[in-house]
TrEMBL record, chain A:
Topological relation to the membrane, as annotated: Multi-pass membrane protein
Name the UniProt record assigns to this protein: Phospholipid-transporting ATPase
Origin species: Deinandra increscens subsp. villosa
High-level lineage: Eukaryota, Viridiplantae, Streptophyta, Embryophyta, Tracheophyta
P-type ATPase N-terminal domain segment(s): 86-152
Required cofactor names: Mg(2+)
Domain P-type ATPase C-terminal positions: 910-1149
Broad class of where this protein is predominantly found: membrane
Family the entry assigns: Belongs to the cation transport ATPase (P-type) (TC 3.A.3) family. Type IV subfamily.
One Pfam family named in its UniProt record: Cation_ATPase
Automatic annotation (TrEMBL), chain B:
Organism: Deinandra increscens subsp. villosa
Entry protein name: ALA-interacting subunit
Cited InterPro entries: CDC50/LEM3_fam
Record field: compositional bias (Low complexity): 14-30
Chain intervals with Polar residues compositional bias: 1-10
């Protein structure tokens, strides 16, 4: 509505064939004063995101489909079946059928009795735990009992127990919070008197009174407030994180009745509870009159009343049916690319597992067949049991069953081939990585006092593989702190010299009751214009200036709030509102002496050059994305009526009567062009005086439309369009939105890192291009291809032309080996309407992938998602979307990684994002440093875990071949269990969290190092196979060196088992130690500590006389052969790995290796020399 | 023009915010409420660290070090192994002739004379102590069902006499628990050997302390006596002296340390005199243990010992091989380094510097 951020061209506005069908749908809900219509629509979209994701349709049709789905609930007439009937002040009747829930809330998941079953049920949703469980159950069958009961259940039980304790603690805290919340006292009307009642006892239909600074206990429809006009200011920070005040209104029909004195009764029919916190549709019958209710009449649970003494309302939704509770869900979970690839390898590993098991069971079958004749005398198979009087079968189930049993037993023995513990380690590692990302003081934004936020915990490593960055412009590249710069009034450009008003005395102020009131923000003013605005005479220009500033001050939804300062004689006026553009305009008007000091739903008070004037606000047409303008109808004190309109130039010039003054229109257009070409945001203001007849017609239709229950928004729009015409042009304003600090440098770094940065903005093309230049996205050497079409055919043609041009250019570039000049594609939303979701998409993709830079301007929120999908669906490259506003939500959710900027435009982007931060430039440390680290760490950790577990399994497997294929393990069962829990678990987690392949400085100096993640250098199929071959070699060494050394000796199986245990743990840890790059004391402690812990565990296990291996380790350690074997194993197993590493590092060093060396042998000379090379590159 | 005024409004206000209070809400926020993460070297991931890099110097010295350590160890191992004198005599087929079934019949019969005489020639002087082992081949003492068929509790504690559930099928006989129960004890090896030299002087075999001290002290009870052992119809092997407690039945203790591999030796006793080269040792053995029915081999082994244990060249050869390989690698690497040196950390090697657009 009020935001004139021209970022919302829906296709309907230009593709006129579609507009009629879509427009009536998609803005039905725009009846929300003080709520950004855009936020409204896209919040619905975000809530409905699944549905639009399902229909992969991002072009124009996509918008209409999605919108109609999103709005269908509110658009439908509330029929009796679907409606919730609330009898005001009659909770008994309201709750007759007991279908509405009470106001007590329960966020706790469990009760004392349900805890165990429910918690277990939830935990077993994880595949890993199911695998554990199935293996443990298999092991309980007497024929298959490989491990003892304790050893087989302990790991699962301990994991379950730890998780359960954690869940129980969290739940206990939730219960405690619930209790406080439920027992909070609120004032409720009982027997016509307000009494204190505990919050949980509030019922739907009761009348609740809330005082200033109190939290609303349930969703209430406002009946009356302390304000005579029925306004209540609320803060919704608990709900959506926005800290500015929003206004809520009581209906005219009820605001005069003060409960407790007057009797209030009535019937509210409203929608069923839903999650949309920006939508509410209901009507109320009071005194036989039917009044409609919208989102501006409801205050939601969790909001806080501010600047209003009290408000009274009737509870319509309570407890868990309140919108706040219905919205209590976390961010959608994504799965990282690395994990997807890892799962592929896990499937391979399970094939290995099955292969091993088949080998073992087949061999067991052959063995049994070969020894078939002997089975009778082999006591452990003895088919006939001679120990009894009657000869009976004993312990032999027939060949087939024996093979089957050995298969299952081998699954149990080799179970850790599937590294289940890896999933748990990965979660721990991600938590650790998130800890460091959050605490990185390079990503702390001092200006907004926000830390980096990790909202999604499972895609940390994706940050290291991004190929495309899609960025919003406003608020992301720029600060979204609007500053009024220039004005063009009646064709005269006021962009001259500025006076800055800083300090105590400067700026415009007014005297009220001996106090000085001044606007909170100070604005630079044009001295000439300031002088002109102060002179009041009847010249035409003076009048036009008067009207222009009056329009700026009045035509908005800003609420002025008077704030006390430390100086008792001075007060500040703080303009609260949704749109930063509007705030800037109102502050500007105030600086020129048109100070808005009061706004109610019925009137505004403006102090004009020291003279207070009151205007009646007779009507207001909110901003919507089709009209892209808003209007307000003002009744002057002298009872003339005028309509003021402000909006985007494209739509404003259509409704301006050019015949009035053609030259003014022309010069204004020129000014607009020059403003936007330096990156300013422009708005056009127009005005028309209404005759009494006109006003009457308008008023009747406005009233009909605004109380309509069907298609109210559509009707209102028609009314608005009828009155917003034949305007006379007042002028245009230009607002500057500054680039954020460090944006050009950040973009430069990202470009160097091989990341393609696309800017998707709702702004005008000229603005977008100029921002492109100032952010160094575009350079003068680039060739710009601009696609700006109005039909499908012309789109097709220009795409084809562009493809030809770009191909030619790229060929030329290649021939001359000049990589400096490249292609930039600039495309607007209208063309995208025809291109997305049609066969032209493919061509656009081909073109875009040839371009170094892509700028999309005038795009609608869903088109942003469509563009992200264009890349995501066609390539394997990772995408990242960054934005700050509600219009970026769809794109943030669509991209592989969504980053929200916690900026000026509310919190919706942050809520939908995976990571949130304060500034665009933090993207560089986030991706280049943390992303790189996380990727390297996680990739290494996964490979290492595969290796670690497979090595152990191979060793078990080799031994099985020497035991008649009967799955004996010489390694004790306790060591098998502890292997992945104690012996080897901690170092890999520590390395996964802490190891750094390169320092922050190197990564920032050479952004190109980021390419290793994009090229999947640290985790790919080749590395997996190499690792597996290495594993095989190491297992052969570990197994066969002792085997051959102790062949034909009197060694017992426990001793040999201990030797294998120690050998495998030593080499697994030393293998890790060889790959650790940065040895801090923590890595030392964990790696050597694990080895020591293993020795201690082995000693403890061997000190239990009840186990067969009693004292084996001590006997073993006293023999020289043991130590010689151990040393031999360590060296022999590492040699191939060492050789490969050496040769790769010396002969084919990767960039990371060189940078690491450079880091170590730091040589200032070389760094500077390199800097020059970098600088020279483009000029070659 | 855009950049003409580089300071943002907020920044411009920030210094005056404390006095005027007229800044934006952000700068009004009290500094003490700052959420700025506390700086520590840990949270900023800047802990002091050692960053080892494998420079050619390091690599070559590492390989050389391995060579220097491994070759001497390999040589001494080989020498030690060479000094070990080992006499192996397979006697299972020599003592009983005939087809497999005949052999089985012979060994299972209660009445046949199972005494067998073998003579061994000592080729090299054997210094005492000479260990006497029996070696069984193809005897899966590590078969899962065999290994599990024992009760360690029963062996230790008198009270756990009936803890025989894991011992099936050798858990009870005639309704009473067997001590020691299980297949491992049941299949106790029971061939016996006695040695004499060519001049007919008896060579004493010391059978004391052939088992681990820890086993005698802790694992096998001094108050647990064999009971009901080998009383069923199906006799697996040796019998035990029921008047001796288990911790003095050393043959059983040795046997119960189940072997790791299907071919294994077990200590039978020690001969504590030197035997000169060229002497012939006559062995009188009672060939009672049935390995014929599963085609197992039985061997008698007399062996001296070295610091490395018995005769086994593998470790020596393996060490020499690894040491040699490392020497080879060290040389190769030196050559590579000399032929194609690379300046470490030279940014010119970075891929984007090396190859900027096709140069």
């Amino acid at each position: 509505m009020t935001s004139n951020r021209p970022s919302l061209p829906t296709p309907g506005s230009t593709g006129s064939d579609l507009s009629s069908s879509t427009s009536s749908n998609n803005s039905d809900n725009n009846q929300i004063p003080n709520l950004h219509s855009l936020q409204n629509s896209s919040s619905q979209l975000s809530i409905k995101s699944n549905s639009w994701r399902a229909s992969v349709n991002f072009g124009s049709k996509g918008v209409s489909v999605a919108d109609s789905e999103g709005f269908s609930i509110s658009r439908r007439e509330i029929n009796e079946d679907d409606a919730r009937l609330v009898y005001v002040n009659d909770p008994l009747k309201t709750n007759e059928t007991f279908e509405f829930c009470g106001n007590s809330i329960r966020t706790g998941k469990y009760s004392v009795f349900t805890f165990l079953p429910r918690n277990l049920f939830e935990q077993f949703h994880r595949v890993a735990y199911m695998y554990f469980l199935i293996i443990a159950i298999l092991n309980q069958l007497p024929q298959l009992a490989v491990f003892g009961r304790g050893a087989s259940i302990l790991p699962l039980a301990s994991v379950l127990f730890v998780t359960a304790v954690k869940d129980a603690y969290e739940d206990w805290r939730r219960h405690k919070a619930d209790k406080i919340e439920n027992n909070r006292l609120s004032s409720v009307l009982v027997n016509d008197q307000f009494q204190h009642k505990r919050s949980k006892d509030i019922q739907v239909g009761e009348i609740v009174k809330v005082s200033a600074d109190e939290t609303i206990p349930c969703d209430i429809v406002v009946l009356c407030t302390s304000d005579p006009t029925g306004v209540a200011y609320v803060q919704t920070i608990n709900l959506d994180g926005e800290s500015n005040l929003k206004t809520r209104y009581a209906k005219q029909e009820t605001l005069s009745r003060v409960p407790g004195k007057d009797v209030i009764s009535g019937l509210i029919k409203c929608e069923k509870p839903n999650r949309n916190i920006y939508g509410f549709q209901a009507n109320m019958e009071v005194d036989g009159k039917r009044v409609s209710l919208g989102p501006s009449n409801i205050i939601l649970r969790g909001c806080v009343i501010k600047n209003t003494d009290w408000a009274v309302g009737v509870a319509v939704y309570a407890g868990r049916e309140t919108k706040a509770m219905l919205n209590n869900s976390g961010a959608p979970s994504k799965r990282s690319r690395l994990e997807t690839h890892m799962n592929r390898e896990i499937i391979l590993l399970s094939f290995f597992l099955v292969t091993l098991c088949i080998i073992v069971s087949a061999c067991a079958g052959f063995w049994l067949r070969r020894h078939q004749d002997e089975l009778d005398i082999m006591p452990f198979y003895r088919r006939k049991d001679y120990s009894k009087e009657q000869v009976e079968n004993y312990n032999y189930y027939g060949l087939g069953m024996e093979i089957f049993f050995s298969f299952l037993m081998s699954v149990i023995v080799f179970q850790i081939m599937i590294p289940i513990s890896l999933y748990i380690s990965m979660e721990l590692v991600r938590v650790g990585q998130a800890y460091f990302m959050i605490r990185d003081d390079k990503m702390f934004d001092a200006a907004s006092n926000t830390r980096f936020q990790c909202r999604a915990l499972n895609i940390n490593e994706d940050l290291g593989q991004i190929k495309y960055v899609f960025s919003d412009k406003t608020g992301t590249l720029t600060e979204n702190k609007m500053e009024f710069q220039f004005a063009s009034i009646s064709g005269v450009d006021y962009s001259g010299e500025k006076i800055e008003f800083y300090g105590e005395q400067g700026g415009y102020n007014i005297q009220v009751d001996g106090q000085v009131w001044r606007p909170k923000m100070k604005v630079q003013v044009d001295s000439k214009l300031l002088k002109l605005s102060k002179t009041r005479n009847d010249t035409k220009s003076s009048k036009e200036i008067y009207d222009f500033f009056l329009a700026l001050a009045a035509c908005n939804t800003i609420v002025p709030i008077v704030v006390n300062t430390s100086n008792p004689n001075e007060k500040l006026i703080d303009y609260q509102g949704e749109s930063p553009d509007e705030q800037a305009l109102v502050y500007a008007a105030a600086a020129y002496g048109f100070m808005l000091i009061e706004r109610t739903s019925g009137h505004i008070v403006i102090d004009i050059q020291g003279e207070r004037q009151r205007f009646n606000v007779l009507g207001m047409h909110e901003f919507d994305s089709d009209r892209k303008r808003m209007s307000v109808i003002l009744g002057y004190p002298d009872s003339t009526v005028k309509v003021f309109v402000k909006g985007a130039d494209t739509t404003m010039f259509k409704v301006i009567d050019e015949s009035l003054n053609l030259s003014v229109v022309k010069s204004t257009e020129n000014h607009l062009h020059s403003y936007s070409s330096i990156g300013l945001r422009t708005l056009v203001v127009g005005m028309r005086a209404l005759s009494i007849a006109e006003f009457d017609t308008w008023q009747t239709s406005y009233e009909i439309a605004s109380t309509a229950l069907m298609g109210r928004a559509g009707l209102l729009r028609k009314v608005a369009v009828n009155i917003e015409n034949n305007l006379s042009l007042l002028g245009a304003s230009a607002i500057e939105d500054r680039l954020q600090k460090g944006v050009p440098e950040a973009i430069e770094s990202l470009r160097k890192a091989g990341i393609k940065v696309w800017v998707l903005t709702g702004d005008k093309q000229e603005t977008a291009i100029s921002i492109g230049y100032s952010s160094k996205l575009l350079t003068s050497k680039m060739m710009q291809i601009i696609i700006n079409n109005n039909s499908k055919m012309s789109c097709k043609k220009s795409l084809e032309d562009a493809l030809v041009t770009s191909r030619k250019l790229i060929n030329v570039t290649r021939a001359s080996e000049d990589d400096a000049s490249s292609v930039a594609l600039i495309i607007d939303g209208t063309s995208l309407v025809y291109i997305l979701d049609s066969e032209l998409e493919e061509q656009l993709f081909e073109l875009a992938s040839k371009c170094a830079v892509v700028l999309c301007c005038r795009v609608a929120p869903l088109q942003k998602a469509g563009i992200v999908a264009l890349i995501k669906n066609r390539t394997d490259d990772m995408t990242l979307a960054i934005g700050d506003g509600a219009n970026d939500v769809s794109m943030i959710q669509m991209a592989d990684v969504g980053v929200g900027i916690s900026g000026q435009e509310g919190r919706q982007a942050v809520m939908a994002s995976d990571f949130a931060m304060g500034q665009f430039r933090f993207l560089v440390p986030l991706m280049l440093v943390h992303g790189h680290w996380n990727y390297q760490r996680m990739a290494y950790m996964i490979l290492y875990n595969f290796y670690r577990n497979a090595l152990f399994v191979f060793i078990l497997f080799w031994y099985v071949l020497y035991t008649g294929f009967t799955l004996t393990t010489s390694i004790t069962e306790w060591s098998s269990v502890l292997y992945s829990v104690i012996y080897t678990a901690i170092p890999t987690i520590v390395v996964g969290i802490l190891d750094k392949d390169l320092s922050r400085k190197s990564l920032m100096t050479y952004p190109q190092l980021y390419g290793s993640g994009q090229r999947k250098e640290s985790y790919n199929a080749k590395l997996f196979w190499v690792t597996m071959v290495d594993t095989l070699w190491q297992s052969v060494v570990v197994f066969f060196i002792p085997l051959l050394a102790f062949w034909e000796s009197d060694i017992d199986s426990s001793s040999l088992g201990d030797l294998w245990t120690l050998a495998v743990v030593f080499i697994v840890n030393i293998h890790l130690a060889m790959d650790v790059i940065r040895w801090t004391w923590i890595s030392h402690a964990s790696i050597w500590g694990s080895i020591i812990a293993t020795c201690i565990c082995v000693i403890i296990i061997d000190a239990i006389p009840a186990l067969p291996g009693y004292w084996a380790i001590f006997n073993l350690a006293s023999s020289g052969l043991f130590w010689i074997c151990l040393l031999g194993i360590l060296i022999a197993s590492m040699i191939p790995r060492f050789i490969v590493k050496m040769f790769m590092q010396h002969c084919k060093p990767c960039d990371r290796q060189i940078a690491r060396e450079a880091e170590k042998f730091q040589n200032a000379m070389e760094i500077t020399r390199n800097g020059e090379i970098e600088m020279n590159l483009p000029h070659r | 023009m855009m950049n003409s005024n580089p300071s943002t409004p907020m920044n411009a206000h920030a210094p005056s915010s404390s006095s005027g209070g007229a800044g934006s809400p952000d700068s009004n926020a009290p500094r003490r409420n700052s959420k700025r993460p506390k700086y520590s070297r840990f949270t900023q991931q800047e802990l002091p660290a050692c960053k080892p890099i494998l420079t050619p110097k390091w690599v070559i010295s590492a390989f050389m070090l391995v060579t220097i350590v491994f070759i001497p160890i390999g040589l001494t191992s080989l020498l030690a192994s060479r000094d070990v004198v080992e006499i192996i005599d397979r006697y299972d087929n020599a003592c009983v002739q005939g087809s497999k079934s005949q052999k089985v019949q012979h060994i299972q019969s209660q009445t046949t004379n199972k005494t067998c005489v073998r003579s061994l020639t000592v080729t090299k002087r054997m210094k005492q102590p000479i260990y006497v082992y029996y070696q069984l081949d193809n005897f899966y003492q590590n078969h899962r069902r065999y290994v599990k068929s024992r009760s360690d509790n029963q062996l230790r504690n008198l009270g756990d006499e009936n803890d025989t559930s894991s011992c099936k099928p050798e858990n009870d006989a005639n309704g009473m628990s067997i001590v020691p129960c299980g297949l491992v004890a049941w299949s106790l090896f029971n061939d016996t050997y006695s040695f004499s030299t060519s001049n007919n002087s008896q060579l004493a075999i010391n059978k004391r302390h052939i088992s681990w001290k820890s086993d005698r002290d802790e694992k096998f009870g001094s108050d647990v006596f064999p009971k009901n052992f080998q009383n069923s119809s199906f006799i697996g092997g040796g019998r035990l002296n029921e008047s001796l407690p288990l911790n003095e039945q050393e043959d059983l203790i040795v046997w119960m340390r189940t072997a790791a591999l299907p071919t294994f030796r077990k200590l039978y006793g020690k001969i504590e005199v030197d035997i000169e080269a060229g002497e012939t040792i006559n062995v009188v053995l009672e060939n009672r243990y049935n390995t014929y029915s599963f085609s197992g081999k039985k061997k008698l082994v007399l062996s001296t010992t070295s610091w490395l244990g018995g005769k086994n060249n593998f470790i020596g050869i393996a060490y020499l091989a690894v040491g040699g390989l490392c020497f080879l690698l060290a040389t190769t690497f030196t050559i590579i380094y000399l032929v194609k040196p690379r300046h470490l950390g030279d940014p010119n090697y970075l891929s984007w510097n090396r190859n900027p657009g096709g140069h």
